[in-house]
Amino acid sequence: MKRSLLCIGEGMLELRQGADGKSSAGRLNSGFAGDTLNAAIYAKRVNPELEVSFLSGIGKDPYSQGFVEFCQQEFLNTELLLRSKTANLGIYAIDVDDKGERSFYYWRKDSAATQVIQLVNEYWINHELHAPTMVFFSGLSLGILSDDDKQSLLNLIQYFKTQGSQVAFDPNYRARMWSSKAHTVTWLTKAYVLSDVILPGLDEHQALFGHNSAQDVADYMQSLGNKELIVKCGLDGVLAFEPYGQVHHQAFNPAPVQVDSTAAGDSFAGTYLATRLANHSVAQAIKQADSVARFVVQHPGAIVETSIFNAFLAKEMG
Q: Is residue 35 annotated as part of the catalytic site, yes or no?
């Protein structure tokens, strides 16, 4: 049976600086992006045989239609892009400094993606929801929702899990999405308990849980149940743990130049999951994900132009 990955989250219209680095309104470029969307795109590019779907709410506005067409151009299954009658696609802008670090500005309140639970419930009346091989969601997938809808999303993912799906989760912590650290911890912990594969950053766990090492994170996850844990530790690289202990350490290998770090974590997550779903080992998946993320940050925007990325892949895998 063909393997499949369902990514759940928010796709948005992205506004970014032009190639000349100017950020005046007349020089902005546009595209589409979002953390789990970016992961879905890189997963499909890395593993073309994988059936990749994106679940989100969109509107009936022209940008939402453009978003559907963009996803189709990336060979994503768009059946679960569910249209709201009252809300539109969210928008964000990125400002990137000369070191490739970025600042974000959002216009997403009450976007169609925040209605995704209502839209799924309406869709479910007349359609089946088939369980994929793996479901992937993030802290942002939760963060845009009301608390009632957060629980409903977890219930939906639990339904998929009872049907045989694996669950993968990246906390992707953004403080502005949450009312407090305690609020964040409550919902991340619920997501961790539900998940089989977890991809946190050590910095997130230092801020939220007081964990000061990857081993601290691993011990915590062990207390929540058996997990495949990939901890991104900045200059200390990436450490992987399975229930019996550490299984791989990928040393930090900086990109020769960092142009835009927007999709570093997203491209890592998508590549890692796609590689694991192609039956490769944890170590092989981390090496591939690290290589892709290192390449992605050398290019502007969340999604590297297709021909450029494919040339990189051909060289990398050749």
A: no
Give the pLDDT confidence of 51-77 residue by residue, as tens digits: 999 999 999 999 999 999 999 999 999
What does the H/E/C string look like for the chain? CCCEEEEECCCEEEEECCCCCCCCHHHCEEEEECHHHHHHHHHHHHCCCCEEEEEEEECCCHHHHHHHHHHHHCCCECCCEEECCCCCCEEEEEEECCCCCEEEEEECCCCHHHHHHHHHHHHHHHCCCCCCCEEEEEHHHHHCCCHHHHHHHHHHHHHHHHCCCEEEEECCCCHHHCCCHHHHHHHHHHHHHHCCEECCEHHHHHHHHCCCCHHHHHHHHHHCCCCEEEEECHHHCEEEEECCEEEEEECCCCCCCCCCCCCHHHHHHHHHHHHHHCCCCHHHHHHHHHHHHHHHCCCCCCCCCHHHHHHHHHHHHC
Which member of 35, 170, 260, 266 is catalytic? 266
| Residues in CB range of 281: below 8 A, 6 or more apart | none
| Residue 22 reports pLDDT greater than 70 | no
- Label residues 53-79 b or e (16+ Cβ within 10 Å = b): bbbbbbbebebbeebbebbeebebbbe
Per-residue pLDDT of 252-310, as tens digits, reads: 988 999 888 889 999 999 999 999 999 999 999 999 999 999 999 999 888 999 999 99
DSSP bridge partners of 242: 245
**Percent residues over pLDDT 90 in the chain:** 81
Instruction: Give pTM, 2 decimals.
Output: 0.94
Angle at 61 between CA 55 and CA 63, to 5 degrees: 70
